[in-house]
Amino acid sequence: MPVSLYGLWSAKMFFGFVIFPTDFDKIVSPISVAHFSQYKLMNLLLERLEKLGFSVCSPSETEGSIWNRKILMGHECISIHPTNEGLKVGTSYLKEGEMEEREFHCSILVGSDGARSTVRKLVDIDMKGERNLQTLVSVHFLSKDLGQYLLHERPGMLFFIFNPDAIGVLVAHDLDQGEFVLQVEQLMLNIPYYSPQQKIEDFSFKDMFNLIQVCEQIILKLVGWKLVDVQVLDIKPWVMHAEVAEKYVSHNNRVILVGDAAHRFPPAGGFGKYF
Ligand SMILES: Cc1cc2nc3c(=O)[nH]c(=O)nc-3n(C[C@H](O)[C@H](O)[C@H](O)COP(=O)(O)OP(=O)(O)OC[C@H]3O[C@@H](n4cnc5c(N)ncnc54)[C@H](O)[C@@H]3O)c2cc1C
């Protein structure tokens, strides 16, 4: 991966560790780099599947034969039972405002349902490792002002920022559109907020307003000057764990855990889905 280290960011003590977002001329590396937000990657993967002959179906389109290269969206796995032939998997889905359930029979079930994996819980596999290493808050925000500045002055994808007032990681999702995620220690919010027991949705309008203002203050401290157009879209807590499932397979090797369902790591080094 092409990496370029920059020294002092600005007189405001904004230090940058910058990875070029694109290297289309392949000067730095024979492989050009791109950064995809998960929701953009998801759309690309679905497009690719459709090109390979799969059809992506919403729950209302899933009547009839389901095995013929169909990707069934919106189905949540709720039960798993072994049968003589394989597995019976119960799912629930929302159809015209009502929750409905349906069962599937299959030989293999791949549990790729993330860190809080229901599949893993249903087959009674525990996680081992270290929990609650750090509690962070991800602030998803827009600012074309910051995007344009970085695009022209310091193009990059990941900015590790250390200054006397604040520490954080700024992830540039789209410099052109000015879309960012800022990760900061929960302590920096400096207001009572007890995740994961307390959810952002539980906040009153006034608390939420305060929280957004606090986030805007942190962005100001980290960036070093007042951005004219910060728009906070979402604020989500994230507790960092380093855990691995006690085993990856169950039910005669018919249930297989992959991805975060099998292991969740601190993100240093980008140890995500494929590691
Ligand atoms: C803040 C943060 C930053 C990160 N940064 C990076 C990075 O820079 N690089 C990197 O490589 N990795 C990064 N990661 C890790 C990366 O996001 C994960 O490793 C990866 O998304 C795991 O993919 P997954 O498919 O296993 O799980 P997920 O992406 O969590 O997907 C699980 C899917 O299963 C669905 N689901 C949940 N329950 C059920 C159910 N019962 N039935 C059916 N479906 C269900 C969910 O809706 C979801 O769509 C980061 C993670 C976090 C939290």
UniProtKB/TrEMBL annotation:
Q: Which GO terms describe its cellular component?
A: mitochondrion
Entry-linked PANTHER family: FAD_NAD(P)-BINDING OXIDOREDUCTASE FAMILY PROTEIN, TRK SYSTEM POTASSIUM UPTAKE PROTEIN
Task: One Pfam family, please name it.
Answer: FAD_binding_3
Protein's recorded name? FAD-binding domain-containing protein
Span of domain FAD-binding:
71-272
Species the sequence originates in: Ensete ventricosum
Which controlled-vocabulary keywords does the entry list? FAD, Flavoprotein
Which residues are listed as membrane-spanning?
none
InterPro entries for this protein: FAD-bd, FAD/NAD-bd_sf, RIFMO-like
Q: Name one GO biological process term.
A: ubiquinone biosynthetic process
The protein's GO terms of the molecular function aspect are: FAD binding; oxidoreductase activity, acting on paired donors, with incorporation or reduction of molecular oxygen, NAD(P)H as one donor, and incorporation of one atom of oxygen
